[in-house]
């Protein structure tokens, strides 16, 4: 291996460290005596480094989309084949009954959201009208591959995703899991509002109250927040609900919600002994609101609320 | 026999749990490998849609056949056999179809899908950017000229950093055959990038 051209042929494998001991030895002994080849090796090294720059790193969005679709397809696969329901495993993950899968709860919730996206993705846009009428394809189909077969026929691979209707008691575990995730569906405020409305009927359950509290504090849509507040009204005495209402009082951008929070918190105040610690916090929040509230009506309601419990309208 | 590391033991436990129907364990296995699977498919097929198809099909096959996995090889090798076979199928179909163009029509006019993929690792140096741009174009051309097997071996060695012995295991061939394949691929690269080298 003394010829420069032959040695250069081996540069790539040399840099990958994939030459045998003898081959490597021959390359190195040639390099020792050939300045041109040493320079050529450096250029080869630069090219190999430059090759790294053209690698494509899949975007986080693509990875997330892949994971969501996989969840959906695994769910379909499992439901069609499992003897013991994969669904039970899945709901275990979401509800935390599975010890190992607590970290998967957000992913599970995303999956359920993805079910909606997935179904929407596969719904045809009028292209299968004729075939559907002839009963050839499912209502939600998409041609994945078309391939000529050897016998002159054509093989068509269809992706088919069906919408399913699940009905059941809103207090049953399966339905509850779906409702709780639909209440957080970021894409559809209408769906969230209707779901929160249904969940309001089960607010005696702690996980539902958590979901309503989350919606009250974080939902972008004021209508959904108002509905969540409606469901939490009967529980305004509970410390966590009271804390959420206090937060609404000070941070919600909607004056209607702030007014409702004042009314509920006032009703929940211990009229006989307003000096109790949590009441003091509420009164303190109302006094703070008096300092920063720009809406005259909300200020008026807040002032009346403070006067009704004989509290000062000023902060000290 | 070499002792298994903690990570291997953990993976073995995960596989056994997944074989027993533990979906959380299966999820963990997916999460451990799915990013590199997607990267491999994306770089080989240069199409997000095709890469996504390979990702789905690969993990569905793993899910359906996990009970047949007997620990004769590492899970990584087994998974990569599935993924590389799927990618090779895609590449061979594409060759038959005379290579589908990456140019697609958009409301803003025709664009090259792969040009829409950001170059994540190019730094701000303009000279380097120009060099990289020209090199990128030439590399795309030469990569398209490799046979699917050469392309696969090059990808696994250069971008996935796998040793030829492992590549041979994955592709069901010998280390020597994988080496010959890589040699041919790098020869073609060198011929095409002559003035860079």
What is the assembly state of the chains in this entry?
heterodimer
Distance between the termini of chain B: 44 Å
**Shape, principal axes of CA atoms of chain A:** elongated
Order of helices and strands of chain A: HHHHHHHHEEHHHHHHHH
Annotation, overall tally of beta strands of chain A: 2
Helix count of chain B, per DSSP?
Answer: 8
Task: Supply the CATH superfamily name of the largest domain in chain B.
Answer: RNA polymerase sigma factor, region 2, helix turn helix motif
Question: How many distinct helices of chain A?
Answer: 16
Full CATH superfamily name of the largest domain in chain A: Leucine-rich Repeat Variant
What is the CATH-assigned architecture of the largest domain in chain B? Orthogonal Bundle
Give the second-level CATH assignment, the architecture of the largest domain in chain A.
Answer: Alpha Horseshoe
Largest interface: A-B, 45 and 53 residues
Strand order of the largest sheet of chain B: 1-2
């Amino acid at each position: 291996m003394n010829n420069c051209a032959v040695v250069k042929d081996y540069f790539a494998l040399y840099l990958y460290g994939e030459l045998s001991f003898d081959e490597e030895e021959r390359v190195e002994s040639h390099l020792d005596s050939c300045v041109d080849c040493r320079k050529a090796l450096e250029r080869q090294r630069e090219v190999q480094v430059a090759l790294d720059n053209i690698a494509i790193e899949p975007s986080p969005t693509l990875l997330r989309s892949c994971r969501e679709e996989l969840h959906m397809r695994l769910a379909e696969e499992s439901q069609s084949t499992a003897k013991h329901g994969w669904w039970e495993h899945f709901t275990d993950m979401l509800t935390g009954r599975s010890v190992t899968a607590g970290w998967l709860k957000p992913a599970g919730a995303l999956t359920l959201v993805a079910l909606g996206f997935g179904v929407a993705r596969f719904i045809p846009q009028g292209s299968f009208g004729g075939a559907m009428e002839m009963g050839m394809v499912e209502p939600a189909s998409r041609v994945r591959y078309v391939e000529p077969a050897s016998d002159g026929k054509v093989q068509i691979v269809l992706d088919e995703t069906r919408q399913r209707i699940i009905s059941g008691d809103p207090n049953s575990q399966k339905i509850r899991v779906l409702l709780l995730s639909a209440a957080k569906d970021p894409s559809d405020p209408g769906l969230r509002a209707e779901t929160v409305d249904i969940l309001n009927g089960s607010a005696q359950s702690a996980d539902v109250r958590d979901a309503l509290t989350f919606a009250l504090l974080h939902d972008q849509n004021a209508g959904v927040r108002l509905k969540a507040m409606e469901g939490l009204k009967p529980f305004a005495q509970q410390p966590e609900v009271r804390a959420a209402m206090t937060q609404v009082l000070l941070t919600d951008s909607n004056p209607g919600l702030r007014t409702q929070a004042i009314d509920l918190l006032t009703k929940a105040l211990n009229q006989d002994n307003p000096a109790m610690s949590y009441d003091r916090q509420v009164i303190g929040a109302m006094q703070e609101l008096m300092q920063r509230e720009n809406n005259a009506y909300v200020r008026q309601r807040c002032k009346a609320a403070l006067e009704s419990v004989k509290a000062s309208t000023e902060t000290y | 026999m070499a002792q298994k590391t903690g990570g291997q033991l953990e993976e073995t436990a995960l596989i056994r749990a997944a074989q027993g129907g533990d979906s959380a364990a299966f999820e963990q296995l997916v999460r451990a490998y799915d990013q590199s699977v997607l990267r491999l498919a994306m770089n080989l097929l240069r199409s997000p849609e095709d890469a996504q198809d390979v990702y789905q099909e690969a993990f569905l096959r793993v899910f359906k056949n996990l009970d047949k996995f007997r620990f004769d090889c590492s899970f990584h090798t087994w998974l990569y056999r599935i993924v590389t076979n799927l990618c090779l199928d895609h590449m061979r179909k594409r060759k038959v179809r005379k290579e589908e163009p990456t140019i697609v029509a958009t409301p803003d006019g025709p664009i090259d899908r792969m040009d829409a993929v950001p170059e994540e690792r190019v730094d701000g140096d303009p000279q380097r950017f120009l060099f990289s741009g020209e090199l990128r174009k030439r590399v795309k051309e030469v990569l398209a000229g490799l046979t699917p097997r050469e392309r696969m071996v090059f990808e696994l060695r250069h971008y996935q950093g796998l040793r030829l012995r492992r590549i041979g295991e994955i592709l069901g061939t010998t280390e020597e055959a994988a080496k010959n394949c890589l040699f041919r691929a790098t020869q073609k690269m060198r011929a095409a990038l002559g003035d860079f080298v």
